[in-house]
Amino acid sequence: MLMTPLRTKNLSRLAVQGLVGLCLWPTLAWAHDGTGLVGGFVSGFLHPLNGPDHMLAMVAVGLWGAILGRPLVAVLPVVFPIMMAIGGVMGILGVPIPPVELGIGLSVVVLGAVIAFAVKPAIWVAIVIVAVFGIFHGYAHGQELPSAADPVGYSVGFVLSTGLLHLIGIGIGYLALRRGGMRLVQGLGVVIAVSGLWFVSQALLG
């Protein structure tokens, strides 16, 4: 059954309020602070939800994919988790890379900016951008995996949660665009980018 315009409008409003709520998370807890992770699948699934930096980046990948359309709307949500897995292995092995927290903060800024300006680069450029940032997000969690009681279960839960956040971003994007809401999507990009600046400042001050 088709949704009425009023119902669609209400869903769009709820989606925006939910995203803003993530940005204004009172504790602003980092998803990768501390060590000694315990558990497996459930811990991995909940881990991205405990940090607004990760949540916003993952939702942003979906939002950008919705703007870019096929094939990237399907490719980007696959590339990000794959590169996260590679980054996780790099984190476990201790492969040196630039400051991780700064890279994660910049990922939120850049992904928010490309949404805000509705940037539509070549396919390979979009893939490279998402892939590079996926490594930083994966690296942070890879450093913690050895301390988890069930690293495999934790990894599966984390990847599944990441995929769901991508789907949420795609859903919000398509819902807004269907109602002619490119400005709404771009506005969400502005909110994401500004939040990213806060994460970057914390990384620099830390």
TrEMBL record:
Keywords, ordered alphabetically: Membrane, Transmembrane, Transmembrane helix
Keyword Acyltransferase appears in the UniProt entry: no
Phosphoprotein as UniProt keyword: no
Pfam families attached to this UniProt entry: HupE_UreJ
Superkingdom in the source lineage: Bacteria
InterPro entries found in the cross-reference section: HupE_UreJ (IPR007038)
TM stretches of this protein: 55-73, 78-96, 102-118, 123-140, 152-177, 184-205
This protein's name: HupE/UreJ family protein
